[in-house]
Amino acid sequence: MKTQQCFSCGTQDGMQHFDGRSFTIDFRQLTRQVHDISGWECQACSEIEFDDGSAERYSEASDQLLEDSRQLMAAEMKRIRRKLHLTQKEAVKLLSGGGHNAFSRYERGEIAPPQPLFMLMRLLDRHPHLMAEVQSLNEGLDLRQRLEIKDQEREGVTAP
């Protein structure tokens, strides 16, 4: 059996060689399997080091999953925004408060949208009637009313 010293924990002959394993890559609730991986695993600390070819394939699969995730999220952002009958400018104003071209960058897959924004978009996809609530909250009437009450209370306390 092939063994070597573990570079992570230092255990002498702790690393044992393996062949033909499958590993799962996880990214934002998406997964991808990479099969037939070879490398070394430490029996003491469970550190794993892939052989060069396996490391390259694992890295390529990871990069591809990241790109696939960005493109999937980009397509979803665009589909949902259109379903809600919003322009990119309106979507920024109502939903994210980001820069004027933020949605364009999300929809082209240049950058991933913030997770809370993506979750909000998915909720609005399932419950589009909530857009009326979003618009109402953006108008701020409820906050203005609360501020008015607070000002009246303050004036009542300080009035002679």
TrEMBL record:
<dbReference type="InterPro" id="IPR010982">
    <property type="entry name" value="Lambda_DNA-bd_dom_sf"/>
</dbReference>
<dbReference type="InterPro" id="IPR032758">
    <property type="entry name" value="MqsA/HigA-2"/>
</dbReference>
<dbReference type="Pfam" id="PF15731">
    <property type="entry name" value="MqsA_antitoxin"/>
</dbReference>
<dbReference type="InterPro" id="IPR001387">
    <property type="entry name" value="Cro/C1-type_HTH"/>
</dbReference>
<dbReference type="InterPro" id="IPR022452">
    <property type="entry name" value="MqsA"/>
</dbReference>
<dbReference type="InterPro" id="IPR022453">
    <property type="entry name" value="Znf_MqsA-type"/>
</dbReference>
<dbReference type="GO" id="GO:0003677">
    <property type="term" value="F:DNA binding"/>
</dbReference>
<protein>
    <submittedName>
        <fullName>Transcriptional regulator</fullName>
    </submittedName>
</protein>
